[in-house]
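Inputs:
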Amino acid sequence: MSTGLSLSGVGKDFRVRGRTVRALDGIDLVAAPGDFVCVVGASGSGKSTLLSLVAGLIPPTSGEIQLHGRPVTGPGPDRGLVPQAGTLYPWRTVERNVAFGLELLPLDRAERARRVSWYLAETGLAGLRKSLPRQLSGGQQQRVAIARALACEPEVLLLDEPFGALDVQTKEDMQVLVRQVWQDTGTTVLMVTHDVEEAVFLGQRVIVLACDPGRIAAEIPVELAEERGLDVKRSAGFLELRASVEDLVRAYHAQVR
Amino acid sequence: MSPLANHVTERAAGELRTRRENWRPLPRRRPPRRVPAVLAIRAPIPKPWRWTLIVLSLAIPLVVWTALSASGAVSPTFLPSPRAVLATGLEMARTGELFTDLWATLRRILYGFGIAVLISVPLGIAMGTFQAAQSLFEPLIGLVRYLPAVAFIPLLLIWLGTDEAPKVALLVLGTVFFNTVMTADVVRTVPRAIIDVSYTLGARRGEVLRKVIVPYALPGIIDAIRVNAAAAWNFVVVAELVASTTGLGRRIVQAQRFLQTSKIFAVLVVIAVLGVVIDVALRLLRNRVGRWVG
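Outputs:
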C-alpha cells in the first residue's frame, strides 16, 4: 500500500500487421504526491504510450499501475491529461472549456464559477474567458487545456509533450507557468517530452527512456533550486546536467540506427 | 571533444560520403507570365468582378431565353416567353391552385424527409460511434443505397395504394440511406484525442456522446441534411408525376396533357425558387450552429 502513483513491471505490446511489437517493457516508476517527474526519450521510445497507460486509456499488457494503492482500470478525473494540441472543445468558450469537468459534478453555479475563475486567473486567461478556441494562439490554447485538466483537481497531471507545437519563446512562458501552477496546486506532475532542456528545467527527476522496446535507461535527480527562473538555464549546473542527459538520450537513440 | 562532435563523426564513419560532382547548372525556366487577379487559383477577386459575374450567371440564360422566344425561331408552344410564364404564374397564384399544389408538395417533403432525418441522424450517429452499429447496418445500407429509389415505385404502389403513403415512403427510401452514411462519416471525424481527453475529465460514455460527439458533429450533420434535402425535392416531384392528384409534379403532368408549356415553366420556376429558399434557410441554420467552425 503506497501513496502516489506507482508503476511496477509495466509493459505494453501492440499488434502491427499481425506482428507483436513491444512498445514498453518493465517500467518501474514511483511518483510521490507533489512530485514533478519528466520522462524524456526519442520518438518511438513509447513516451506517449506510457502516459496513455497511466491515464487508463489503454490497458497494460503486463505489470500494474496503481494510484494511492488502487489499480488503474480506466480513465478518470483523478488523472488529468493535457495532450500536445487540438483537444479543446471548439464550440465552447474558454471558460466553458475549463468548466467541462465541473459541469459533470453536483456543484452549484456559483461554486463552479468561483473555481473556473481561479484557474483562469492562475493560467493568465482571465481576459479571454469569452473567446472561442479558434481565436486563441497555440500557447493560449494549451493554457486552456491545462486549466481544464486542473479544474478537476487531479491527483496526477499528465502532460504529453504539451508545448511541442509552440515556438521557443511561448514555450518558455509555458514552462514558467507550469512550474508556478505545480507549486500553487501541489499536484503531482508526470510530463513526457523530447526536449531535454525542458525536462531538466521543469522536473525534480528526469527519466530517460531507451527505444525498442521502451524501457527506463536512467533516472537522474535534478538538484537545482526549487525556485527556478528562466535564467537557471544559463547556470553551469543546469548546462552540465542538460549535457549529460542529452548524452544519455543520444546514446540510447543511436543504438537503434 | 564535445559530445555533439563525437556523435557526428560516429555517423559519418558509417556512411559513404562523396563530394557532389560538378554537374552543369540546372536549367531554369523563365518566370511565369503574370495573370489577371481573376484567374489566380483560389484568390479573392475584386468585388465589382464578383458581382458582375453573379449577375451574369442569371442574366445570360434569361436574355437567351427572351431572345429565342421573341425572335420567333421557336414556337411559343415549345418555349413560352418569360413574360407569358410570369403571367401564368401570377394567374395560378390568383386562383389559389399554386398554393394548394405547393402545400401538398411541401407537406410530403415535411413528412417524408422529416421521417428520413429522424431515422438517419440517430442511426448515423450510432454507426459513427459504435463499431457494433457499424458492422450491423453498414452491409445492408451499403447494398440498398445503390438501388434506385424510383425503381421501388411500382412496389410501393402495390403495397401502399395510391394515397399519400407511397409518396412519403419513396421520399424516405430515397434519402434515408445517404443521410445515414453521410452522418456516420461526419461523426467519424470527431478526433480520438478529444474523446480520450473527455474521459480523463470525468465524462462517462453517454456524456461523451451527448456533450462531445454530437455537438462536434452537429454542423456537419446539418450540411448532410442540406445536401439530401435537394434529393428529397427530386423524389417528391417524381412521385407526383407517377401517381397523384395534387402537388407541383402533378400540375406539370396535367399541363403537359393540355400543352400548357407556360404552366410547366411556371411550376419549374416555383420549384427552383423554393429549393433555393430551403437551401439558404438550412445554410443560415448551419452557420448559426457552427459559428465556432469559423
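Remarks. Residues 237 and 249 of chain B are 5 Å apart (CA to CA). Residues 205-242 of chain B form the longest helix (38 residues).
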